[in-house]
Design a protein that fits this description.
heterodimer, A: about 375 residues, alpha/beta, D-Maltodextrin-Binding Protein, domain 2, two-stranded antiparallel ribbon, 14 helices, about 40% helix, about 15% strand, B: about 280 residues, mainly alpha, MetI-like fold, globular
Chain lengths: ~375, ~280
């Protein structure tokens, strides 16, 4: 009984010693970290003490949980990835902004959402080690010192090579019109639930007008400049189909219903890796251009584990991990020194990538397209 | 028996009333306030009619309102119309009636999104239905049946999913009608339709009203079926609201949300009133 008491006392003493040492370490490193003056070694030490990081990302959550295990093996920091929706995650961060400590350590979001977010809600990423290869500006949107790119993506056209030869692939609006006329019902695209279809119709509209899609300002006069494009879609309405989402387009292409559909390069590659669509399907960016962009990560100012979040972002944006994203997920790497040889399109074809139409102009164009094209069908 | 003190009554009612007044009330309050410019997540908050003016003037708003009303009303009426004969059939127990009743109510246990994807598999380009009809020679080749422009597929799924709710409510109501009353009507020369119109429907009108209201509200606010199997040239109000929300335009989303709530209330009153007028008004 006495032995048991001694053992318990020893355990309590050991626990207290551990607690004191951890407290001392956190007390030593946190002020320096919080003030942004911590060295990277101090940040690493603080991160290991925090021991975990909550990464809010809205897609491939199951695959990222497995992917992030190598980070845990390297650092001992556990990566928690809750299920979530893109906008819901951003709204959660907004809603928690008034709290001293929120739930989100690392928030992933599309670069096109950045103009909608108050950047003061994020902590500066100045604690990250210098890395000239890291990308902060994507598709014309500057992440400043609060956002870095970790996922590059590109829209284009997925096609079935058994039905159309590479040389016959449509490259311009006129080519697409000719294809629709010759092959009615063989192309479908979505106008909501994903950006691949919107990228397609916005680029047709862009090519058929003089309107500046890189300027977010919108006006009735500027929208009227799209009349030719709206007429183009209405004249050929019988010969193309509207799908319900990015996934619906690709699934129906894979099943043989369509010859071609707009798609995201990374989405398509991911589905092919998982065997959910056929491997034979191919992808290209037409000469008229389609939108490309990427996703950013930021640390909310009230992140519960800011040091671990910094270490995680440093890992996520490293050339090695960006190369892995390219080979495993088909992304366009977001680091200058990463290898992109596993991508679905060649580097030469990436010259056809265009930055996403600027908001709020893009929203008003999509609204007009729905009212004047979709509702007219 | 002595009447309990008012504060005791209030306390006893609080668990139920509190839930409605605090939680649901708070949501309604925020939606209404947001539609008038308050709780603006992106800019200045304050009283304005701008969001109502901007949203109500859009063609997309009018289209989504009329389309959602169409789906809500047709789904409710069709579900109740189909549930009545089944409820009458199951009024008197017979061998196997319990099994039949359980099978008919099975859709209540299947989530809408699961049912929608199963339905898609059946009617897709290379789905079972297309293959079957092609093999019979009815179709020359596969045809596009999904996301039809007239929302036929969506209405089929709405009725499939909601008919059991009406069946559940109507079965109890028609079982409560005495055999003597129905026999008396028959003795007086009332045919099948006259017995339904003058006896059964008026005596079960409360259950009919409850069914119509529950189904109408659900179908009016449909998002799941619409975004998977609904027509692609229409947007339901829930879909339209989501469209604004995806663009962080919360105030305009609130305008659509408030419209949805008002239409739910008015449509329910309208359907219940119509059922009352048509059937109970004839009970003389």
């Amino acid at each position: 009984m006495t032995g048991d008491t001694t053992s318990i006392q020893q355990r309590i003493d050991n626990m207290l010693k551990k607690l004191l040492s951890v407290t001392a370490l956190v007390a030593l490193t946190t002020p320096a970290f919080a003030s942004g003056q911590a060295t990277w070694e101090e940040t690493m030490a603080a991160a290991k003490e925090e021991g975990e990081v909550y990464w809010f990302v809205w897609y491939f959550e199951d695959r990222f949980r497995v992917f992030a295990e190598q980070f845990t093996e390297e650092t001992g920091i556990v990566v928690n990835i809750p299920e979530g929706d893109h906008i819901a995650n951003i709204d959660k961060m907004r809603a928690e902004a008034g709290r001293e400590t929120g739930d989100i350590d690392v928030l992933a979001y599309g670069y096109d959402q950045l103009p909608n977010i108050n950047m003061e809600l994020f902590a500066p990423l100045t604690m990250l080690p210098e890395d000239a290869g890291r990308v902060s500006t994507v598709a014309g949107v500057d992440g400043g010192d609060v956002a870095v790119a970790w996922w590059g993506n590109q829209t284009g056209i997925a096609y079935d090579p058994a039905k159309i030869a590479e040389d016959d692939l449509p490259q311009t609006p006129a080519d697409f019109a000719a294809f629709w006329t010759a092959n009615p019902g063989q192309m479908g695209f979505n106008y909501e639930n994903g950006g691949s279809g919107p990228s397609f119709f916005l680029n047709i509209l862009r090519n058929l007008s003089e309107a500046n899609f890189n300027d977010g300002a919108s006006s009735p006069e500027k929208l009227a400049m799209l009349d030719a494009g709206i007429t183009f879609f209405n004249e050929h309405a019988e010969n193309y189909e509207i799908t319900t989402s990015n996934s619906d387009s690709l699934t129906r292409l894979s099943e043989g219903e369509f010859t071609m559909v707009p798609a995201w390069e990374d989405h398509m590659a991911g589905l092919q890796v998982n065997g959910e669509i056929r491997d034979e399907l191919r992808f290209y960016i037409p000469e008229m251009g389609m939108f490309g962009g990427g996703n950013a990560v930021s640390i909310p100012a009230n992140a519960p584990n800011p040091a671990a979040a910094s270490v995680f972002i440093d890992w996520l944006t490293s050339p090695e991990i960006q190369t892995q994203f390219n080979s495993q997920f088909g992304t366009a790497p977001m680091h200058a020194n990463a290898d992109d040889s596993a991508a679905l399109v060649s580097n030469a074809m990436r010259d056809r990538s265009r930055p996403w139409a600027a908001k709020p102009f893009r929203d008003t164009v999509e609204e007009r397209f729905i009212e004047d094209v979709i509702f007219e069908r | 028996m002595r009447q309990p003190a008012p504060w005791k009554l209030a306390l006893l009612l609080f668990p139920g009333l509190g839930l409605i007044l605090i939680f649901i009330g708070a949501v309604i309050y925020i939606a209404v306030a947001q539609s008038f410019g308050y709780y603006n997540l992106q800019g200045e908050s304050g009283w304005t009619l701008e969001f109502w003016e901007r949203t109500v003037g859009r063609r997309a708003y009018e289209r989504s309102v009329s389309y959602s009303l169409y789906v809500g009303i047709v789904s409710a009426v069709l579900s109740v119309a189909l549930a009545y004969p089944l409820a009458l059939w199951l009024r008197k127990p017979f061998k196997g009636s319990l099994t039949v009743s359980a099978i008919l109510k099975a859709p209540l246990l299947i989530h809408g999104i699961v049912a929608a994807f199963l339905f898609l598999n059946v009617i897709s380009y290379h789905g079972i239905l297309n293959q079957f009809l092609v093999s019979l020679g009815v179709f020359d080749g596969p045809r596009r049946l999904q996301n039809d422009d007239n929302a036929i597929g969506l209405l089929i799924m709405q009725v499939w999913k909601n008919m059991p709710i009406a069946l559940l409510l109507l079965t109890g109501a028609v079982q409560a009608i005495s055999d003597d009353v129905l026999r008396a009507a028959r003795d007086l020369g009332a045919g099948v339709w006259a017995r339904f119109r003058k006896i059964i429907a008026p005596l079960s009108v409360s259950a009919m009203q409850a069914s119509l209201i529950i189904i109408f509200i659900g179908a009016l606010a449909d998002f799941t079926f619409q975004t998977t199997i609904g027509p692609t040239n229409r947007q339901s109000m829930a879909q339209y609201m989501d469209w604004f929300k995806e663009r962080a335009r919360w105030n305009e989303a609130a305008v659509v949300g408030v419209t949805l709530m008002v239409l739910s209330l008015l449509g329910s009153i309208g359907l219940a009133g119509a059922a009352q007028l048509i059937f109970r008004g004839r009970r003389k």
